[in-house]
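Per reviewer request, we include the raw input and output of the structure prediction for the construct analysed in the revised manuscript.
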Amino acid sequence: MPTATQTFETQRSQISGFPIQDIVKEFGTPCYVYDMSVIEERVRDLSAFDVVRYAQKACSNIGILDRLRRLGVVVDAVSAGEVKRALAAGYDPKKEPHCIVFTADVFDREALAIVKEYGLHVNCGSPDMIQQLGSAVPGSSVTLRINPGFGHGHSQKTNTGGPQSKHGIWHEDVDECLRMADLNNVLVTGLHMHIGSGTDLEHLSQVCESLEKIALQVGRTLTTISAGGGLPVPYRQGQTYVDLDQYYSLWDATRKRLESSFGHPLNLEIEPGRYLVAESGFLIAEIRAVKKMGENIFYLLDAGFNDLARPILYGAYHPISISHRDGRISKQTADVVVGGPLCESGDIFTQEEGGFVAKRNLPVAFVGDFLILEVAGAYGFVMASNYNGRYRVPEVLLEKGKMHCIRARESFEDLIHGEVIPPVG
């Protein structure tokens, strides 16, 4: 089992040995901070798999991509922009095992062009992509992303399997896709399944069974099978990790049975996103107002859902801690609602799915104290926006006793870059 990195404390004085006050003094608030030692530990957790392929959409800063590359992790890209991010971080598209794989349910024109330019392997999520790839790059090899007919996850919005999901090739359409591949000079060499983010071992193990059945249907052209992603991390007290030894054993047994059937070795990949980076990340904000509204006490921050959208999108729960500006330890707590500065009633960090405002028992805090939203490294900054004319915040990597700014705070010039006032008349 992985070593827990979350203690779910409500008061925090430091991150990875760096005092909160020192981080804020150098980078201001709000800011994202990532602890590289946590990312390294999560990579080690998955070392039994032949290939660890990072789903970079979870956190795509090129500083983090560079460090993952140096740890031997390869990447998945879901757009032309993510392909270019991987290239900027030093990934070699010609290096095996497919250092950059393009995964999507559609090719837009730029994506198909960059796949052709760099000869990228493609993980096809729709049958139409097979014909489009064959026309653009005849002789390509592909992976088929299969929707097994079921899904699971921490939210319906992150469920990526079953008939309500747009993702993947429907499991009953595999034969037709194989015929389409033959007609378009495309060779199917891989299978991939991913049913959702935050799934449990029972549902993850069902993927093994479904993929094995379809692999036998595809046949001996297969050289790679992918367990996909979806490994959960604990956000709340009492939540646990998946037993990775048991999970690997399930997939290894599946792989060995297929190897016996095919008569040749298969590579076993896993494709984590959230699992590698979520626990490394912290969004540090300053409390700018404390006020009572009826029976509710609000801590209002200088960070909003433009910085961290998961609560408003999914009702996602993030651990919260307080760091007092003067370093004191508070012995008093209060049930509070935590919100941001945006001109939106939904700009609340303590809410449940459906938009219902919730309270959190936190230390009594005052204007000028810091509030830290934790386990924020996945789907945090990557979904940030400039809504309400807000500047996107800096990103900071804490590594081996040093603080590295891996993204500067945006300026007004960044905010209006590309905008033009047209001539009158």
